[in-house]
Design goal:
This protein is an alpha+beta fold. Helix content is 51%, strand content 10%. The protein has an eight-stranded mixed sheet. The protein has a two-stranded antiparallel sheet with strand order 1-2. Strands 9-10 form a two-stranded antiparallel ribbon. Helix 6 runs antiparallel to helix 7 and helix 11 packs across helix 14.
């Protein structure tokens, strides 16, 4: 057996050699399926036509083994269900007959491929790399898929109605119509299969490639240009998370994904859990897909926008997100050249609880996933104490002040506020230190000899507040502190005004308190 070529720099010729070598290996199924993964580096920076040639060669290599490889079925079924290349559709139909046994759950994939080819058939030669037609050996891709339908035999009886609908379509060529009519007439009226054996209709996949790590440094922007991090979007409620991009030219992938999310929203409303479950779709193509484009694309396909229902693009951490979720996508520059269908169900911690890949997912199946998560979360949740209706302060609405025996209610509220504002991290402590310097320095005799120290304390305070604001994405505190600096050094120092001096100090203090309050609340929620 020849040694495979080195794969440091993937070329098309090198990929062919790797496929040929893998097909002769005892571990051929696993190696070939690895070469079919969309994220494989061989597909990076390849044009769409090259990717079609490469994947077709890898698909057909699955037939060279001595026995069927059931793990190959989803790859062939995916192509038949949502592919649109005649070469790949023909290759998938041939592979299906080699790696599977006739079963009713395979019949819809064959019907889908016939429907596609009724509008875009082409002559292909599966004996040649890339399927380029040659004289005498080429045949329509439709004919190859028809052989798969005949191979299914009685197992395809459930597709009789769908095939008869296809026969009524005006785009069928005379040869296609004749072959399809003969096949439909040969199907038994009653279902001729007991339904035993593996079921191939489910898109649910294993979770081996999903890494459940915290991704709080991943920042996204929604259809309204609002920026939020991973935890803000996906922690606290079950989430259905799909991937797509607006430039996708395959209507059975991205466009259908968003339409199915819209139908998922309808199911959630009917089940009474629309507000308890989040729906999100993230684009593979954040450079091109602006917030306005995302909104228009999703809205035109029926998706509704709400607090927990968004379309998004990644602003920071795109590579980290792709690696963590094991996304099946490859690019030419920033443009997607191949991707699979993939949707994730996230639990209340933002971790992957279920994943559906390659085959079209069913909304009812995902509804079951999220309902199970909701049921599990309700069993674990400890009810919070009721907040009195008379509680009208912001602090009381967020969390009732603890009632301490022997201490009046207003004292208890002040105590809760003090605990909330107490510095819970070194940065908050540094904020208090710099703010305290600004408040204390005006008491020092010979005030104007202390201006260098005041300037240093002001700069430290502003720097800390900017750091906090970038992390929390709330800039009110910085704005107040910056205004305080302008007042302190403009009106206070330049005009030697005590009012300007104290006004600047007060604004600085207010900005620091607001920033620390925001950070304290975030820390409390995380705990």
């Amino acid at each position: 057996m020849a040694e495979p070529l080195e794969t440091d720099a993937w070329t098309e010729a090198r990929f062919r050699a790797a496929v040929d070598f893998a097909s002769q290996s005892p571990a051929a199924p696993a190696e070939l399926l690895g070469l079919l993964e969309e994220s494989h580096p061989a597909y990076g920076q390849r044009g769409a036509a090259a990717v079609v040639r490469m994947r077709g060669h890898a698909l057909l290599a699955l037939m060279r083994g001595p026995r069927p490889w059931p793990a190959s079925v989803p790859f062939a079924a995916e192509e038949l269900q949502s592919g649109h290349s005649p070469y790949l559709l023909a290759a998938a139909a041939r592979v299906l007959q080699h790696v599977a046994s006739p079963h009713p759950s395979l019949a819809p994939f064959v019907t889908s491929a016939l429907t596609t080819l009724s509008q875009s058939d082409d002559a292909v030669d599966l004996s040649r790399y890339g399927g380029t037609a040659s004289e005498g050996d080429a045949a329509p891709a439709f004919d190859e898929v028809m052989r798969a339908l005949q191979w299914l035999g009685p197992a395809a009886a459930g597709e009789r109605a769908a095939l008869q609908t296809l026969l009524q379509q005006p785009g069928l060529a005379p040869e296609q119509r004749a072959a399809l009519t003969h096949a439909v007439q040969a199907l038994p009226m009653a279902h001729g299969h007991d339904g035993s054996g593996p079921q191939w209709h489910s898109s649910r996949d294993a979770l081996a490639s999903c890494i459940n790590t915290r991704m709080s440094d991943v920042v996204l922007e929604d259809q309204d240009a609002q920026r939020l991090d991973w935890d803000e979007l996906f922690v606290g409620a079950p989430t259905v998370l799909a991937f797509f991009y607006t430039r996708c030219d395959n209507a059975r992938k991205c466009s259908l994904t968003i339409s199915k999310l819209a139908r998922m929203q309808d199911l959630l409303r009917q089940a009474g859990c629309f507000e308890q479950v989040r729906i999100a779709a993230i684009t593979y193509d954040p450079t091109f897909d602006s917030p306005q484009r995302l909104r228009g694309y999703a809205a035109s396909r029926g998706m509704q926008f709400a607090a927990g229902h968004r379309v998004l693009r990644v602003i920071e951490g795109h590579e980290r997100l792709s690696r963590a979720l094991g996304l099946g996508v490859s690019f030419v520059g920033h443009v997607v050249n191949r991707h699979r269908i993939e949707v994730f169900v996230l639990d209340l911690a933002g971790h992957v609880a279920a994943v559906h890949r390659r085959l079209q997912w069913r909304e009812e199946e995902l509804l079951e996933d999220v309902q199970q998560l909701l049921s599990a979360s309700q069993e674990k949740v400890i009810p919070a104490p009721a907040v009195p209706a008379s509680s009208s302060t912001p602090f009381a609405r967020q969390r009732a002040a603890p009632a301490v025996r022997g201490i009046p209610g207003w004292t208890s509220t002040l105590l809760a506020m003090a605990i909330a504002l107490f510095p819970k991290c070194p940065i908050c402590g540094l904020t208090y230190l710099s703010m305290g310097s600004l408040v204390a320095l005006p008491q020092v005799p010979g005030l104007y000899w202390t201006w260098p120290l005041i300037a240093l304390a002001s700069m430290i305070n502003l720097a800390v507040l900017v750091w906090l604001a970038r992390r929390e994405r709330r800039w009110l505190g910085v704005a107040l502190a910056a205004l305080g600096s302008a007042m302190l050094f403009g009106w206070g120092a330049a005009l030697q005004s005590d009012w300007g001096l104290w006004g600047g100090v007060v604004l600085h203090a207010a900005g620091a308190l607001i920033s620390v309050w925001t950070t304290s609340q975030r820390v409390a929620q995380a705990v």
